[in-house]
Design a protein that fits this description.
The protein has about 220 residues and is of the alpha/beta class. About 40% of the residues lie in helices and about 15% in strands. The protein has a single domain (about 1-10, about 55-220), classed as NAD(P)-binding Rossmann-like Domain (Rossmann fold, 3-Layer(aba) Sandwich), CATH 3.40.50.720. The chain is built from six helices and six strands; from the N terminus they run αββαβαβαβααβ. Helix 1 (about 1-10) packs across helix 6 (about 190-200), helix 2 (about 40-55) packs parallel to helix 3 (about 80-105) and helix 3 (about 80-105) runs parallel beside helix 4 (about 130-150). The radius of gyration is 17 Å and the shape is globular. The relative contact order is 0.13.
């Protein structure tokens, strides 16, 4: 999903800073690759510092990094907890704080957080308390920061996906996962990309949690 977002922003002539633990340098001069663990503050510091050195400004931030683990609540380990909090919460905090500081200086910017519809529509057959704990926090902070920054020119929104067809899900599981959506299919990566790009251009939208989940958020089925 992150790679697709990079391509989509480049197609619109954005210059992009991309980061993951194993990312490689790009031949595209419009892409700056910064490897690192997003849960660490030093990674966020490098992303923002090197991005400003290369491109001079930060206009948008997409917090796409995330981990998801489904298991019964009482079976989560301390390691599970630390990993989910580290990536989903600390990862958001460190990079968003630094990027927002630059946006506030310029009086413009846009932040998008990728969360999950399980926050609002938990499923008995998919126990995911750590996803709700961490991604639910992102939903809440999206609206909090939207209000905090509302007069500053910086917008803050979220995209709340259903289950998206990525390499995380083996093909043999697709039929069962499709049935977990009222529309009867899994989401495609392009569905999330389209949602992020809509929010990017929607200058009158802030504090929105945009559900891209095949109807999951609308109710039970």
């Amino acid at each position: 999903m992150g790679a697709a977002l990079v391509r989509a922003y480049r197609d619109r002539n954005f210059r992009v800073i991309a980061s993951s633990r194993s990312i490689k340098d790009s031949a595209d001069s419009g892409i700056l690759a910064v490897p690192g663990d997003i849960s660490k503050p030093e990674t966020a510091e490098r992303i923002v510092r090197e991005g400003l050195q290369h491109f001079g400004r930060i206009d948008s931030l997409v917090n796409n990094a995330g981990v998801f683990l489904s298991k019964p609540f009482i079976e989560f380990t301390e390691e599970d907890y630390a990993h989910n909090i580290g990536v989903n919460v600390a990862g958001f905090f460190h990079i968003t704080q630094r990027a927002a500081a630059e946006m506030l200086k310029r009086g413009s910017g846009h932040i998008v957080n990728i969360t999950t519809s399980l926050v609002n529509q938990p499923m008995a057959g998919m126990p995911a308390a750590l996803a709700s704990l961490t991604k639910g926090g992102l939903n809440a902070v999206t609206q909090s920061l939207a209000m905090e920054f509302s007069k500053s020119g910086v917008r803050v929104n979220a995209v709340s996906p259903g289950i998206i067809k990525t390499p995380m899900h083996p093909p043999e599981a697709h039929a069962a996962l499709a049935a977990l959506h009222p529309v009867g299919r899994m989401g495609e990566i392009r569905d999330i990309v389209d949602a992020v790009l809509y929010l990017e251009a929607a200058s009158f939208v802030t504090g929105e949690i945009l559900h891209v989940d095949g109807g999951q958020n609308a109710g039970r089925w």
